[in-house]
Amino acid sequence: MQDTASVRPQLVESLYVEALALSDEVRAVFDLSGLEASDEKSYDPFRVALSCEALRATTRMMHAVAWLLNQRAYMRGELSALQMHRLGKLTRLSGRDPERIAQLPLHLREMIEATETFYRHLQRFEEQWSESDAMVAAPVTAMQERLAEVFAVAS
């Protein structure tokens, strides 16, 4: 069985490719250029729902791609542990609006669900990796503290 250190880069690369593909699908599905501008200044609940959910899905995928790019950079040594700690966290995004989503056609609702599912997967990986990294760091921190005590007593 492969250890986490060797599986993680492969997983991040795979997720990155998947995120790019899903982002492209989101862009295509929510392409609003085909909608003609309405001459009326009236409130159109469908257009509002479509615009809001397109923005949410796009934002969700932008955050996912950014997180994966940070993971890649960290694994390549392009980001330090401190930079990763500061910059490498997934943003907690606002929840869905069921009333708006209900106004959209099925294929759009399915795309929204796909982006939410993908993002939840990344959140679970982030939690698991944070716990795993903390367990690895704990013995090192304990050793550093013991060395500091020894050298403090010796001086």
Strand percent estimate: under 5%
C-alpha termini separation: 46 Å
- Tell me the count of domains: 1
The number of helical elements comes to 5
The major pleated sheet works out as: none
**Radius of gyration computed on alpha carbons:** 22 Å
Shape: elongated
| Total DSSP E strands | 0
What structural class do the secondary elements suggest?
Answer: mainly alpha
> Mind telling me the CATH class?
Mainly Alpha
Quaternary form: single chain
Helix content range: over 70%
Order of helices and strands: HHHHH
Uncertain residue ranges: none
Annotated CATH homologous superfamily: Protein of unknown function DUF1465
Pfam families: DUF1465
Protein name: DUF1465 domain-containing protein
What this model shows, in words?
The protein has 155 residues and is mainly α. The protein has a single domain, classed as Helicase, Ruva Protein, domain 3 (Orthogonal Bundle). Helices cover 76% and strands 0% of the residues. It has five helices and no strands. The protein has helices spanning 4-29, 45-75, 81-87, 98-102, 106-154. It is elongated and about 80 Å long. This is DUF1465 domain-containing protein. It comes from Blastomonas marina.
Question: What is the gist of this entry?
Answer:
The protein has a single domain (4-154), classed as Protein of unknown function DUF1465 (Helicase, Ruva Protein, domain 3).
